[in-house]
Amino acid sequence: MSIWKKPITLELVNPRNARTAVGHLGIEITEIGDDFLVGRVPVDERTVQPFGLLHGGVSVVLAETLGSVGAYYSSPEGHTAVGLDINANHLRSARSGWVTATAKPVHIGRTTQVWQIDMVNDEGLPTCTSRITMAILAPR
């Protein structure tokens, strides 16, 4: 059963990221399932730190992007979602290719949501795991 309470498609979600930090970093949503989202970020000159590794902050931006999109589209019409807390454990570096993340809800409540975001490199090895708590704001 689908968790989405608002219409959600790749054609709706990805254009909203143009001309934002998400678009600048090359982050894209690639798949929408009944209860998950998949997105990815390139490991390139926009996203690496001075030692040539994917910047840890970029992994957090990817996690927050997926958690925010998931929380927004799984909240009731007229509601919005904002981040309250995020953490990330960096498990393995990435030097090239793509880092792909899958976001799944841990808890979808009336006023808060918790999302788990797991990231892997092109070989499928874990690079980072993150959890975000979102506040769900009712219309004013």
From TrEMBL:
Pfam families: 4HBT
Keyword Hydrolase tagged: yes
Keywords recorded for this protein, A-Z: Hydrolase
Keyword Transmembrane helix: no
Superkingdom of the organism of origin: Bacteria
InterPro entries noted in UniProt: HotDog_dom_sf, PAAI_dom, Thioestr_dom
Domain Thioesterase: 51-125
NCBIfam families noted in UniProt: unchar_dom_1 (TIGR00369)
Family: Belongs to the thioesterase PaaI family.
Name by which UniProt lists this protein: Hotdog fold thioesterase
Species annotation: Acidovorax bellezanensis
